[in-house]
Design brief:
The chain has about 220 residues and is an alpha/beta fold. Helix content is about 50%, strand content about 15%. The strands form 2 sheets. It has a 5-stranded parallel sheet with strand order 2-6-1-7-8, sandwiched between helices. A 3-stranded antiparallel sheet has the order 3-4-5, covered by helices on one side. Helix 2 packs across helix 4. The model has no long low-confidence stretch (mean pLDDT about 95).
């Protein structure tokens, strides 16, 4: 099986690019951030404080996270319920970042992620795919962009769903998410030593995809 790891900060376009790349290669796409969002959603909806490791860890015994693929699209199931849309709510982003900093949560989801890579050709994106989850991935990409550009993209995503978000408020949220992801003690966001860094600030999705395809050809 072949694995391609795409890491990077929130809003860099990882999911869009990973999904398109997987479709082009005929691989399975795995959005690992969605798994942590599912844990965050469970905690938010049940009043479990996401900053309390003991409380979150205890809640894991009541959580079952699974993935389903419908027409090639990933759907996230939380205790049997499809929460693929619910996990994208704004408040769930910071909750996901908080719980993803906990080693117990990461261990809880690690086998699920690795099992997918053992049984399928995959394109997997997240924060620590190339450094922790799949350190032996054939190709590793660290996809980034400026904070302002990532905020603009995220604002456009909300607008496409009919949700208007203030740019400055969203920028502060993105900046806070960055700090949480980069400074957490467990599996912080960082570029793997053998990853190729790709700055997408001034690139279109098609240009990023083309650049990654060139990297794949070089690695091959």
């Amino acid at each position: 099986m072949t694995a391609i790891a795409i890491d990077g900060p929130a809003g860099a376009g990882k999911s869009t690019i990973a999904r398109a790349l997987a479709q082009k290669l005929g691989y399975l796409y795995l959005d690992t951030g969605a798994l942590y969002r599912a844990i965050g959603l469970y905690c938010v909806e049940r009043g479990v404080p996401t900053g309390d490791k003991a409380a979150v860890t205890a809640a894991l015994d009541s959580i079952d996270v699974a993935l389903r693929y419908v027409d090639g699209a990933q759907r996230v199931l939380l205790n049997g319920e499809d929460v693929s849309e619910a996990i994208r709510r704004p408040e769930i982003s910071l909750a996901a970042s908080a719980v993803s900093a906990m080693d117990t949560v990461r261990a809880f989801l690690l086998d699920l992620q690795r099992d997918m890579a053992r049984t399928h050709d995959v394109v997997m994106d997240g924060r620590d795919i190339g450094t922790v989850v799949l350190p032996d991935a054939r190709v590793k990409i660290f996809l980034t962009a400026s904070l302002e550009e990532r905020t603009r993209r995220r604002q456009a995503e909300y607008a496409a769903k009919g949700e208007e978000r203030d740019f400055d408020e969203l920028l502060r949220e993105m900046d806070q998410r960055d700090r949480q992801d980069r400074t957490r003690a467990v599996a912080p966001l960082r570029r793997a030593e053998d990853a190729v860094e790709l700055d997408s600030t001034s690139l279109s999705a098609d240009e990023v995809l083309a650049a990654i395809e060139s990297i794949l050809k070089e690695k091959a």
